[in-house]
Amino acid sequence: MVREGLVRAHHRVQAELESALIENHSSHEVALSFGIGVFITALPTLGTGFLAMAILVLLFRQLSKIAMLASVIVLNPVVKWGVYGSSYWLGQRILGPGPGLTVEGSLLSVGSDVLVRLWVGNFILAVAFAFFGYFVALRIVYDLRRRFDHV
User: Fold this and answer.
1) pTM of the model
2) Residue 42 contacts by C-beta under 8 Å, 6 or more apart in sequence?
3) Distance between CA atoms of residues 123 and 114, nearest Å
4) CB atoms near residue 45 (< 10 Å)
5) Of 21, 77, 92, 117, which is most buried with the most CB atoms under 10 A?
6) Which 3 state secondary structure label does DSSP give 47?
7) If you ran DSSP here, which 8-state letter would residue 23 be given?
8) Please, what's the largest Cα pairwise distance for the chain?
9) Beta-carbon count within 10 A of 78 CB
10) 17 near 148, Cβ under 8 Å?
11) Tell me: the pLDDT tens digits for 27-63?
12) What is the pLDDT of residues 106-151, one digit of tens each?
């Protein structure tokens, strides 16, 4: 089941990256755009990630709109819950456990401790995902361009 979902996601990303090849961008630019999109999408931006991507695309002609949007397929809302859980876990490993939530306490009293751990872990995961996404996208783009050149 998980494998089938990963295969479907891979095919969707590959199709989007094929569309990005139509744009006039180098392999590096397409892969970089995908990596930046993965980084932004991995962060808990509460929907402002699309706005950030739109601003970046407007400011930098070298970025591929389609490749950036393809990154959203990888880190869709269903997957992001796992990313957030992993982010918090990683943040706790780095910063230590936060204060416990008790019946007498409230989420507001420990909220900043939870958010700091979430953001620290999330930033580290976002950077790792972006690097990984860049190299995977670069490989896919190279392979697709080689295949299209032979057709």
Assistant:
1) 0.76
2) 75, 80, 83, 122, 125, 126, 129, 130
3) 14
4) 13
5) 117
6) coil
7) S
8) 68
9) 8
10) no
11) 899 999 999 999 999 988 877 888 999 899 899 988 9
12) 445 557 788 888 899 999 999 999 999 999 999 988 888 787 775 4
